[in-house]
Design a protein that fits this description.
Length: 373
């Protein structure tokens, strides 16, 4: 029997301010996923990706490594998208994405070549690395990405590789989250209901595409970056309800689909019901993904229109927030109690109550754009 191993670090969000915020329901559902290794299927397959995992751009041995991954992806992403669209290429396993993004352009006597850090010449280890990349990504793609450049185009933005701020980096990460989430959803659907994908009367891919706004095609560089959250992450009730229902329809054919979600989500549903259904669907999806692949899925994120404040209290557990709120209420009642009005400790209680209020406010404040109310 195959031994399943999971990486606990994949559940930890890297401490990088550029990471766009989670969609609220998905963030809360992520905390409720049962991460017991015994749930993972014994023969869990390894999933390959058409795009690098966003964590590759924010995790690394050093800031230099992370900058190299980011620049290499920006340099190659437009050529890679074209290559995927025009060729019958296959997805790439994460370790190959890591090796490819960890290469640096180096000048030889004839032309540019890409090689790993520390390589000495094109005819030695770098030549082998270049050939390996050519075998995986295609020779034409590798040839295009060999050219050194200081400016690249991302969507409708022209970027200087040495002047990328956190908001711009957040947009790049958001784009990777979007594409990888859609790909993972299609892969898991194909794994759980293969009979539907092999049935010509069922257009499973079309159903998956209906969950997302637009034509669900790969994003080309010339398209402008969206200015508001759409689809599953939309804050407009009617739009959100439409895409949540499409998401529910796809998941309804999966094994162990919750019986309390079998009813259709009507357009007239109120906000509380829509958010409750979304969280249950998100939890079922993430639990199903973990049970079948042994690691957390990539989930929807919000468009990074602003940077989070430099405050780490927002990372506190919800139980701590509720505990502090309870203390605040307790001291508020004690301040209004007639038996305590004339105690000499009243001023100290006022100060403590004020401190707890400030603490709770600083805890909740970063969530103000994520909470649905």
């Amino acid at each position: 029997m195959k031994v399943v191993q999971t990486n606990a670090k994949l559940w930890e969000v890297p401490a990088d301010r550029a990471i766009p915020p989670y969609a609220y329901s998905w963030n809360t559902a992520l905390e409720d996923v049962d991460k017991d290794i015994r749930r993972v299927h014994a023969n869990a397959p390894k999933i390959a990706y058409f795009f690098p995992h966003p964590f590759l751009l924010v995790r690394g041995e050093s800031a230099e490594h992370k900058q190299r991954y980011l620049c290499n992806w920006l340099t190659s992403q437009s050529a890679w998208i074209v290559w995927v669209l025009i060729s019958n290429t296959s997805p790439v396993i994460p370790c190959c994405w890591h090796d490819f993004l960890n290469t640096i352009p180096m000048i030889s006597s004839n032309h540019w070549a890409w090689g790993p850090v520390g390589s000495r010449g094109r005819d030695t280890h770098s030549g082998c690395q270049l050939q390996a990349s050519s075998d995986i990504f295609g020779p034409e793609f590798v040839r295009v990405t060999q050219a050194a450049t200081s400016q690249v185009q991302f969507r409708d933005l022209m970027l200087n590789l040495d002047q990328i701020d956190d908001i711009t980096k957040g947009k790049i990460l958001w784009d990777l989250y979007k594409h990888n989430f859609r790909f993972e959803l299609a892969v898991l659907d194909h794994l759980l209901v293969p009979q539907l994908w092999s049935d010509p009367d069922h257009s499973c891919l079309d159903k998956v595409c209906q969950i997302f706004p637009g034509n669900s095609q790969l994003t080309m560089c010339v398209e402008p970056f969206p200015t508001k959250n759409q689809g599953l992450a939309s804050k407009e009730l009617q739009e959100k309800c439409h895409y949540i229902e499409g998401f529910r329809v796809v998941l309804s054919s999966w094994p162990r689909f919750p019986t309390d979600l079998e009813a259709s989500l009507l357009p007239s549903a109120n906000s509380a019901h829509v958010w409750a259904v979304e969280k249950k669907l998100a939890l079922f999806y993430m639990q199903s993904f973990f049970d079948n692949f042994g690691h957390p899925p990539i989930v929807p994120h919000l468009i990074p229109n602003h940077l989070p404040p430099p405050c780490y209290l927002w990372q506190c557990d919800r139980s701590l927030i509720f505990f502090l709120s309870s203390l605040l209420i307790l001291f508020s009642f004690s301040l209004h109690s007639p038996t305590l009005l004339y105690l000499p400790l009243c001023s100290n209680q006022c100060f403590l109550c004020f401190s707890l209020s400030a603490l709770c406010l600083s805890t909740f404040w970063p969530f103000r754009r994520s909470v649905p109310w």
